[in-house]
Design brief:
The structure is a single chain. The protein has eight helices and eight strands. The protein is α/β, with parallel strands linked by helices. It has a single domain, classed as Aldolase class I (TIM Barrel). An eight-stranded parallel barrel has the order 1-2-3-4-5-6-7-8, surrounded by seven helices. α1 crosses α2. The protein is globular, with a radius of gyration of 16 Å. The two termini are 25 Å apart.
Length: 205
């Protein structure tokens, strides 16, 4: 099964709604689901999603700030770790467990520090502050095999800007879900993102 390089950041969603929101996202074509570790019962939610979706979705954890957390996530079937900043210990532990590591990086120094620990995927955060010019400049000095994800302020309207600047993937939170969103609204937002992503996949940059 092909998974689009779109990470849905599940944060601030009530416990009783999170599975319904996740199902709406997966049904719409967004199958990389990140559960924030600073939310309520994150490990329980990760376990629940892994069992519910099986191979239909890839479940991971976000806001990981401790080198002990990747093991907890991997033990439940989680497959990737997203950190809000570049922590070599978290990256090294994640890679050692056979999981994908997405460290949050803002500068070339942080990017190369993360790469030195073995990761090939980097979340540029916050992309809204870096802007397309900043993203393009960083992309230009990194090894070709490093995949950049734009995270922070990404919407269906600016995905093309980041893609042209050199990002292959995207991390999205509030654009896909805000408090009060119904599952219908989540589907509406996710569908716009998926349609934009698919259109960009067919373009040459």
């Amino acid at each position: 099964m092909k998974h689009r390089k779109i990470i849905a950041i599940l944060h601030g969603i009530p416990e009783e709604q999170i599975l319904d929101v996740a199902e709406a996202l997966v049904d719409s074509g967004i199958t990389l689901l990140e559960v924030s570790m600073n939310g309520d019962t994150p490990l329980n939610n990760i376990s629940k999603m892994v069992q519910h979706f099986d191979n239909r979705a890839i479940i991971g954890a976000g806001m990981v700030v401790s080198k002990d957390q990747p093991f907890e996530v991997a033990n439940l079937g989680g497959r990737f770790i997203f950190s809000p900043y570049t922590d070599p210990k978290v990256i090294k532990e994640t890679i050692g467990l056979g999981m994908y590591s997405f460290p949050g990086c803002f500068s070339p120094t942080e990017c190369f520090s993360a790469i030195a620990q073995g990761t090939k995927t980097i979340g540029l955060f916050p992309s809204s502050v870096l802007g397309a010019t900043g993203v393009e400049a960083i992309r230009g000095i990194l090894p070709d095999n490093i995949q950049l994800y734009a995270v922070g302020g990404v919407t269906s309207s600016n995905m093309a800007i980041y893609r042209k600047a050199g990002c292959v993937g995207f991390g999205m939170k509030s654009y896909l879900y805000k408090p009060g969103y119904t599952t219908e609204k989540v589907i509406q937002q996710a569908t716009k993102v998926v349609k934009t992503y698919d259109a960009l996949e067919g373009m040459e940059f």
